[in-house]
Amino acid sequence: MLTRNCLSLLLWVLFDGGLLTPLQPQPPQTLATEPRENVIHLPGWRPHFQRVKRGWVWNQFFVLEEYMGSEPQYVGKLHSDLDKGEGTVKYTLSGDGAGTVFTIDETTGDIHAIRSLDREEKPFYTLRAQAVDIETRKPLEPESEFIIKVQDINDNEPKFLDGPYVASVPEMSPVGAYVLQVKATDADDPTYGSSARVVYSILQGQPYFSIDPKTGIIRTALPNMDREVKEQYQVLIQAKDMGGQLGGLAGTTVVNITLTDVNDNPPRFPKSIFHLKVPESSPIGSAIGRIRAVDPDFGQNAEIEYNIVPGDGGNLFDIITDEDTQEGVIKLKKPLDFETKKAYTFKVEASNLHLDHRFQSAGPFKDTATVKISVLDVDEPPVFSKPLYTMEVYEDTPVGTIIGAVTAQDLDVGSSAVRYFIDWKSDGDSYFTIDGTEGTIATNELLDRESTAQYNFSIIASKVSNPLLTSKVNILINVLDVNEFPPEISVPYETAVCENAKPGQIIQIVSAADRDLSPAGQQFSFRLSPEAAIKPNFTVRDFRNNTAGIETRRNGYSRRQQELYFLPVVIEDSSYPVQSSTNTMTIRVCRCDSDGTILSCNVEAIFLPVGLSTGALIAILLCVVILLAIVVLYVALRRQKKKDTLMTSKEDIRDNVIHYDDEGGGEEDTQAFDIGALRNPKVIEDNKIRRDIKPDSLCLPRQRQPVEDHTDIRDFINQRLQENDVDPTAPPYDSLATYAYEGNGSVAESLSSIDSVTTEADQDYDYLTDWGPRFKVLADMFGEEESYNSDKGT
What we know:
Layout: H1 2-8, E1 12-13, H2 28-32, E2 39-42, E3 57-58, E4 60-64, E5 73-80, E6 89-95, E7 102-104, E8 110-113, E9 124-133, E10 144-151, E11 165-170, E12 178-181, E13 199-204, E14 209-211, E15 217-220, E16 232-240, E17 250-260, E18 273-279, E19 287-292, E20 304-309, E21 317-321, E22 327-332, E23 343-352, E24 366-376, E25 383-384, E26 388-394, E27 402-405, E28 408-409, E29 418-422, E30 432-434, E31 440-443, E32 454-463, E33 470-480, E34 488-489, E35 494-498, E36 506-513, E37 525-528, E38 538-542, E39 547-552, E40 564-572, E41 580-592, E42 598-600, H3 614-647, H4 713-726, H5 776-793
Parallel strand pairs: 2-5, 4-10, 11-17, 18-24, 26-33, 35-41
Antiparallel strand pairs: 1-3, 5-8, 6-9, 7-8, 9-10, 12-15, 13-16, 14-15, 16-17, 19-22, 20-23, 21-22, 23-24, 25-28, 27-31, 29-32, 30-31, 32-33, 34-36, 36-39, 37-40, 38-39, 40-41, 41-42
């Protein structure tokens, strides 16, 4: 069986040169002599190029799927032309499934499948074979590629991948009307045998529907199926492979078919006469009753339209269709009056909106019914003579002035008196009052049209016999204006004129506004005030259409002479009494170009040089800033140079800072530092040139003011600090100045030797003995020294 299948699906490839060596053509019976052998010959190496005669070869094997044998399934054999049967050639296998699915005998080239295969999982395998020399391990020829195909068996049943199905078909469809097409899929090989050839049939759903066994198209099998009788059908479909033969596999699915509605039924009233009772007090537009016609159809086919047939009472009523319930709602178009007419009769027609012309031959799709309406008597509230009352009153009318009246009547049999009152909800501020019996309306406060121009409130009328029966009417009162406000200029109050303006040029159009309610046709007049009419710079031209123009009277204006002009304009209205006002307009002089376009109106622009643009001014300022920066940089460099010279001098001030811990060398030790800074301010100091800097030129000595007596230490230090701050010969770096002034406020005066006289002969220490025992030792020391000096002198 295997050999027969392989031979039936054998693929021959015709080629000229390639990896497989062409074989000599053989008669068919030669192949049949070895029915169990599938052999692929591998080409050997040829030493010379020669033309080889073409032959037929195969390059594929076949293996049966789902093989359940105990031994590996034999696939075929590989053979090389260089294999002489001496065992010197080794066959290798690589590619899809090599070693895991397929194995090869290295000596004989036999290929076996070592596990069961599924064609639906993988239909074929591509492998490569090669012959190798056993001793040298070198390939004897290039790799040859071949295919192993998995031969199909019927192991998969047909499946409806899209099931279950839902379909619909219109009711009353003819026999053979298309419903739906189903499709089953068989995973088996459709090119081999009948494993994938599917046949369809109906297991459930007959005799209503039928199916085409080959295409799976479902059609109607009965005529005039009525949705109103049965709407839903469930059909069971079977798909069987092997052409439906015995032993084939089958699959099923369900098709739910719905009959859709068509308009094949007219609407019908369940009864011919409808009786309704309506109170005469029913408001206009209210629903007074409902009637209904029945249509067994569904959806838009059941939509009904109701119409009143012209006749008795048809003009007092209307009928519409309720979209939700398809009922006819009768509404009142005009008010009913029991005393005038007590009953009405008319006909109503019901018809379908969407007609199907196929079924009109069955008869008219409409029905008619009679409606009888009885009017019921009701105790009604009073009725006003007008639905709305409009009144007018002038503002500032005195309180209590009657401005109008309302009238209401009781139309019922045995009419009752009527009482009037104002609805406080609509007139909370009580601007008006009403006479409860007569219905006259009067003012209750002074009215101001500018505050409120119109009043709207309600008046209620009730029956004396039944106060619960009330009616309401709206009152509209317009407050008329009294001319009490003068007109004013509308914005703007300020305008501009160019310096190069010509006489007679209109620079601004002005209009007027009046807070009073201006009547139709009211005119405003404009003129210049009398005080400004003498040699005016500007004038006012009245255009007689409630506007005026500001006109120039001079040939040019100068901002340098006058920047602002104030123009008084008088405006009058045409109402009675005439009201007028004087409005002052501000006119600013501006610089303009030749076309009259304003360039600048700033005050600062007046003082700018004539003809000097903004860019030029910026350039000048920038140059000034650059020059200042250069000067500052030059001065800084000079000071830095001078500082460097001072810091490198041998007589640096830091060399004169002396540190010592002895008690001092006396008045004669003056070489280490300038002792003059420590002298008592009473001693006149010699003017000396500073020794802590190297002078570039001869500097004049600075003059120091002597310190007055009884000056404290703080004033002394501040004076010395100020002298150093203003000293022109001071170094550019920080220096240390030390002062040792003890003050002169003591009765014993200063004890420091700094305040002593310069010569020892002038010293007198006798006063130390007068200071008490605390200074005895000091008096003895200086007394001995004085006696020693006197002896030495003698």
